[in-house]
Amino acid sequence: xxxxxxxxxxxxxxRAATLRERLEEAAHEYHGLDAPRMAxxxxxxxxxxxxxxxxxxxxxxxxxxxxxxxxAPPASQLxxxxxxxxxxxxxxxxxxxxxxxxxxxxxRAAGDDVRRAGYVAELKIxxxxxxxxxxxxxxxxxxxxxxxxxxxxxxxxxxxxRDVPLRLRGKAHPAVVEIRGxxxxxxxxxxxxxxxxxxxxxxxFANPRNSAAGSLRQLDPAVTAARxxxxxxxxxxxxxxxxxxFTTQWELLDTLDAWGIPVAPNRERCATLDEVHEWAHDVEHxxxxxxxxxxxxxxxxxxxxxxxxxxxDVGREPRWAIARKFAPDIAETRLIAIQVNxxxxxxxxxxxILEPVEIGGTTVKLATLHNFELIRDKDLRPGDWVQVKRxxxxxxxxxxxxxxxxxxxxxxxxxxxxxxxxSCDSTLVAGQDRGMLYCPNFTCPARQLEAxxxxxxxxxxxxxxxxxxxxxxxxxxELVHDAADLYDITAGQFASLERLAEKSAENLxxxxxxxxxxxxxxLIFALGIDDVGEIAARVLARHFGTxxxxxxxxxxEILAVRGIGDVIGxxxxxxxxxxxxxxxxxxxxxxxxxxxxxxxxxxSALKGLTVVLTGTLSTLSRDEASALVEAHGGRVTxxxxxxxxxxxxxxxxxxxxxxxxTLGVEVIDEAExxxxxxxxx
Length: 681
Ligand code: IVH
Description:
38% of the residues lie in helices and 19% in strands. By secondary structure, the chain is α+β, with helices and mostly antiparallel strands. A hairpin with a 6-residue loop joins strand 19 (429-430) and strand 20. The site of 2-(butylsulfanyl)adenosine has 14 residues, from strand 3, strand 8 and strand 13.
């Protein structure tokens, strides 16, 4: 990179374009696909490189550059902005009958075609509505709903959100399009943020909706950037009714998705209103509880856009869409007791035993209480009447006590957190995260049991038949303390356990034996290293290839692995540095558990080389080819520059091939790539 006063060179221009493309791609993988391939550290490095390049040559800056997501100065007041077309609200239907009445009204207005055209059913996201204007595919302005006609300009804030594309993906975008949707905050992030606010002595937000709306209307975009906001799109309009590239609501959602705008899950195209009723009941009673974001109902829309136009609006509400509201999902009940369980890491997790109560169609008896500080802050006491919520998590939550229902003459006694581990009686210690207590005893039976359950679980060593109850028996009988002990149990010992037939005992021994052949990636996951999930375990296994390579890798090396972030990297290094952990690994080795990964990085033939893939390769898919290059130490980038080591071109290779030829970059085919890789290994 050449920083300087002169105009940017062709190289600088190409590099800036490459960096922008790679950063956007990484952000898309991170947010859209749930499969990050670029390590956070690498993202930051590329980001800083682009920032420096743009600082040296401001003319390289484009409005869709990822660097524009941060750094806009605080505003003194949010500017007003008139919407191109008004942002409507929706009428409500509180039950199936009211929804049917809506259909009747629509049929009266536009005829039986409405029924024939069918409906699209969507989740009604409970967030803050915004309108995004894209000109030639580039984000121009973003505004809040305001009074529906005039909103506030929050462009700088929306630019900080990675869910909001600065440039639409794909080609041939409408000259101007307003995309409407909802900014929301996932429950999981909301709770974490509130816990942090409690810790910092700041006021907590009442609910994710308020917190999303408040975060969006900040004067300083840096504040918004620090808040975990997400976005779902659900509507698009063009000024003056100009045609858009879709004729149904369903195609509209597909198009938003193709443009890189996140679209809410669980949408459904329904041929009849009966199907809509069925879908809505399923969402209310099943889907809703599993979502990590708040919905306050569903939105039902007439699918055909021609019919939508014909039906039009009444006042501020469209005739072609309606909100189907759900019954509230909060209930009141009595808190019978507060109990704790001890997790794999030693965390002592408080939970509530409740007088059974029905919430949103299911009976709730237990609820999570998160940590002891929250219990204290809410002053929850066993015996209190409490409000219980079932929402984002499948696990219900206690919102708090109902003070009016506490008998002032005989209030229940305040709750005292435990001092000793309920399982091994060790004195509990405070954790790094506020309000948490931990059992420090590595050999605590409760911890061992949870660790064993995780080890045998499906995504881990997948030992069929080794159920929770069975493991409980093994631990209670002191036959097993850790995972390595599993491989020493005999059929006779199993059979000596209560209620276990000889045949089952033999099957179990066989299942345990078979698990020795699981690849390293599963073993790494099974070890239960903090923060290391299945994907991270696979990344580590592929990169290091063997347990020894991973175990002996210095922290810096683990942190440098693509796809491994700081938290995972540090936690992995710390785990393998622990004496007891290393002893466990050694004992697993002695028992013949597999310590290698079949698809691991196999060589360094392409070390330090930058490779561009283009066209359709003869045998490998794009992903497989990338994996092959990376497995041999190379790096795959999206665009050709002078720094590209070589281009692998397949059939129908287009502009990248031409560019390589112009720049004199070497071009090879897949067979040659395979040869180089094989030769270097
Ligand atoms: S359609 C004319 N679809 O709910 C079309 N709205 O209570 C109006 N909302 O103002 C919007 N999820 O902010 C639509 N899938 C969805 C929605 C949705 C949430 C919000 C939107 C609207 C409000 C009306």
